[in-house]
Amino acid sequence: MNPNEMTAVELVTAYGSGTLSPVEATEACLEAIEARNDQLNAYCLVDAENALAQARESEQRWHSGHVQGLLDGVPISIKDIFLTKGWPTLRGSAAVSPDQPWEVDSPVAARLREDGMVFLGKTTTPELAWKATTDSPAFGITRNPVDPALTAGGSSGGSAAAVAAGMGPVSVGTDGGGSVRIPASFCGIVALKPTHGRIPLYPASPFGPLAHAGPMTRTVDDAALLMDILVLPDHRDPTALAPPRSTYRGEVNRDVAGLGVAYSKDLGFAQVDPEVAAVVDRAVQALAGAGLVVTEADPDIEDPIEAFELLWAAGAATLLNTMPGAREGIDPGLGKVWDAGLDATAVQFLQARAVAAELGIRMGAFHRTHNVLITPTMPIAAFEAGHNVPPGSDLTSWPQWTPFTYPFNMTQQPAISIPCGTTSAGLPVGLQIVGPRHSDDLVLAVARFAERVLAG
User: Burial level of 68, CB count in 10 A (0-12/13-18/19+)?
Assistant: First the structure.
């Protein structure tokens, strides 16, 4: 099998049997990056020398029988938001100088390094990860591997494109309003936004409880394995949750047949493209036929977009105020968000937080009856690259076309996107599974069940 088509689980199995080495897998990834990155722009930094050195060290460990971690030797990319020792973390912005010491690993990078994974490079993000498409004045447009004329989504679009295009089997992104799930849906991969605090973060995000980190993979099994690495404790995040009592890799394959789930086609307020809706409907029907007890039910919520946009703008302004010279050359859309954040009052901010709290209470009540909620991940398929909103629409901001994702950042619930089919044009469509807070293991198990069913 081509190493670029293998999952992390398959790579580890191949290393153990001696049919493939970490060096061979890393070389294959680097060759794929060389072949496709000029077109897709998924990576803003590639460190082939360091990656091959790490792969050789991993290979020696496999030969000696002293494997370092769960995914020792598996190549991975890291979104250019996470501090990574030895590499600049520019966050898609020309306002961040690369000429400074880069001596700190974020918790995400530290856990991956301790596990023995091979760092290929850093993936692209819009400036400060501010929007749901991936382009920036510093690094240009990131494109969709399914059709390079289209957007990969964002803000973890580089990670999604890299995984979908075979330029590394797994990645880690951030999600403050849908940023791992949106590009996962557009590119046809798996991405999990876990419960807030489940994966430790440092430095603390100015977006507060909206901010999450999450694995981006080709399979749910790989996402579960990465979660077992990423959730390990780090003292630098005072809001981090205690590690779970059981492993995600041990829970992901548990039997969920007979589980009662809710299916909401539109959350009661979203407009969904008819073709996307039909793809998701067929997928849900297949899940019901395979043993899930599906009830069509909308949670009793209203669209919280105004509160979300205020919280988002306040976080962006808080960060940008710490960046001297950021106004010059900034993404114009981000500049407008900055101004909106500066205009917000403390009272308005707390009112928006109250909306998020009420939303969380309503979703908590909903989950007393329904174990998980299934929705489309996105109401549309990928659109033309280089635009913040679908061309020809009357939309003015990115949250207007992501109605299924940002509400669950406000509630801090776990939510996963898995591929569930394609449009007539062959564009991927994602299915989202949302669980109560702290039910990351259940969300992964239902996603694994759905993945099997939808694969036939």
Answer: middle
Q: What is the DSSP letter of 77?
A: E
| pLDDT band (50, 70, 90) for residue 166 | very high
Q: What is the pLDDT of residues 301-329, one digit of tens each?
A: 999 999 999 999 999 999 999 998 899 88
Strand order in the sheet with 75-79: 43-46, 118-123, 75-79, 170-175, 212-217, 190-193, 415-422, 428-434, 372-376, 260-263, 293-296
Within 13 Å of residue 444, how many CA atoms lie on the same side as its CB?
Answer: 30
pTM score: 0.98
List beta partners, residue 430: 419
Q: In the 3-class helix/strand/coil scheme, how is 289-300 assigned residue by residue?
A: HHCCEEEECCCC
Active site residues: 79, 155, 179
What's the rounded Cα separation, in Å, for the pair 212 and 205?
A: 9
Q: Which amino acid is at 322?
A: T
Backbone angles phi, psi at 296, to 5 degrees: -75, 120
Determine the Cα–Cα distance for residues 25 and 27; give it in Å rounded to an integer. 5
User: How far is Cα 15 from Cα 73, in angstroms, rounded to an integer?
Assistant: 8
DSSP state of 186: H
Indicate if the pLDDT at residue 79 is higher than 90. Answer: yes
Do you know the residue count of the chain?
A: 456
3-state helix, strand, coil in the chain (%, to 5): 40, 15, 45
Residue 291 to residue 246: CA distance in whole angstroms: 25
> How many CB atoms lie under 10 A from the CB of residue 144?
28
**Residue 417 pairs with which residues in a beta bridge?**
191, 432
Q: Is residue 125 within 8 Å of 157, Cβ to Cβ?
A: yes
Cβ burial 244-271 (10 Å sphere, 16+ → b, else e): beebbbebbeeebeebebbbbbebeebe
